From TrEMBL:
Species of the source: Aporhodopirellula rubra
InterPro entries tied to this protein: Glyco_hydro_43, Glyco_hydro_beta-prop_sf, Glycosyl_Hydrlase_43_Enz
GO biological process terms, semicolon-separated: xylan catabolic process
Highest classification ranks of the organism: Bacteria, Pseudomonadati, Planctomycetota, Planctomycetia, Pirellulales
SUPFAM superfamilies: Arabinanase/levansucrase/invertase
Protein name listed in UniProt: Alpha-N-arabinofuranosidase
Family the UniProt entry places it in: Belongs to the glycosyl hydrolase 43 family.
PANTHER family according to UniProt: ENDO-1,4-BETA-XYLANASE (PTHR43772), PUTATIVE (AFU_ORTHOLOGUE AFUA_2G04480)-RELATED (PTHR43772:SF2)
């Protein structure tokens, strides 16, 4: 009847309105979407979630991903093209399992896919694979990046064409096992009143295949200039770093892990320090939250994921896109996640 038709039309209107979240790939579980504009199109580099018999544990063993697909779109409400398998764990000589959140960068017409995986000793490292095309296929380097550790690489191209990688994630991401870029005996989290563990930031080498220096801490300060404390679980960094630039400022955004928020902090240098500003995305359905931010055809977009389409299964996520708005004062308007 009429009301049914009314609902259908309302749903269609919603599907065509980019200010409402849009699930991008109904047929495949995808997460941690890193989006970039390459060759005038949107390219998305997500994790590829799969059903697994691996038992869930606190280290995230059930996030047992084995390959990456790359997606592209001509417009934010246009068709999403699945370019198929861009890299498979069996073609990465050093990697054993768990292809977690990747990112891609372009330099001089070449494409570099950065990805975390556990090596044969169950230690997360970050690898790089190269291609002539943004959609791949990518060919992995024989070894992980020397000096790399932990997870979630995100590569930011600065206005002077230097490239910086942000990386790290605590708990299952193993970042707590390191101090001063060295592995410690076991991973101990700092006491609640000690400074929080920071995301790492490192400039990449000219050839994009190595670190050009020792990774540094991307420190997040509170409004009075004091580093956030480890016990400040609603604001401190957990994983999923991303950096974008707006009006000359560097915006460092990240997940708070167990409090399930995407927050952001701003600074004047790609190295930070960054001053905490607020929440970009409130909690979504599923334990993890992970995003990217990019500008395309004059719109700022937030790519993220949730577990709504899988009925709430944390390791079966679906990526979505919604518009993001910077206010005139440089703050970002908070976006409501799928919880509440
Ligand atoms: O997708 C696997 C891991 O879950 C990512 O690397 C984290 O950021 C979290 O989203």
């Amino acid at each position: 009847g009429l009301s049914f038709q009314g609902e259908t039309l309302a749903e269609e209107a919603r599907a065509n309105d980019a200010s409402q979240p849009r699930y991008l790939v109904p047929g495949l579980y995808t997460a941690d979407p890193s989006a970039h504009v390459f060759e005038g199109k949107l390219y998305i580099y997500p994790s590829h979630d799969i059903e697994t018999t691996v038992e869930p544990d606190d280290d995230g063993a059930h996030f047992d991903m084995q390959d990456y697909h790359v997606f592209s779109m001509d417009s934010v409400d246009g068709e999403v093209i699945d370019h198929g398998i861009a890299l498979d764990v069996k073609d990465v000589p050093w990697a054993d399992r768990q292809l977690w959140a990747p990112d891609c960068a372009m330099k001089k017409g070449k494409y570099y896919l950065y990805f975390p995986a556990k090596d044969k000793n169950d230690i997360f490292r970050i690898g790089v694979a190269t291609s002539e095309r943004p959609e791949g296929p990518f060919k992995a380097q024989p070894h992980p990046i020397a000096g790399s550790y932990s997870i979630d690489p995100a590569v930011f191209r600065d206005t002077d064409d230097s490239y910086y990688m942000y990386f790290g994630g605590i708990m299952g991401g193993q970042l707590q096992r390191y101090r001063d870029n060295k592995s410690t005996e076991r991973g101990v989290l700092p006491a609640d009143t000690e400074p929080a563990i920071c995301s790492k930031v490192v400039r990449l080498s000219e050839d994009m295949l190595e670190f050009a220096e020792e990774p540094r801490d991307a420190v997040i300060l509170d409004a009075s200039g004091i580093p956030l404390e480890a016990g400040d679980e609603h604001r401190r960094f957990f994983e999923a770093a991303w950096v974008h630039q707006f009006n000359g400022k560097y915006y460092f955004s990240y997940s708070t892990g167990g409090t399930h928020k995407i927050c952001y902090a701003t600074g004047d240098s790609p190295y930070g320090p960054f001053t905490y500003q607020g929440v970009i995305l409130t909690p979504v359905v599923g334990w993890t939250t992970h995003h990217s931010i990019c500008e395309f055809n004059g719109d700022w977009l937030l790519f993220h994921h949730d577990s709504v389409p899988s009925g709430g299964i944390t390791s079966l996520r679906s990526m979505k896109v919604t518009k993001l708005v910077h206010n005139r004062d440089g703050t970002i308007q908070m976006i409501q996640g799928s919880v509440g």
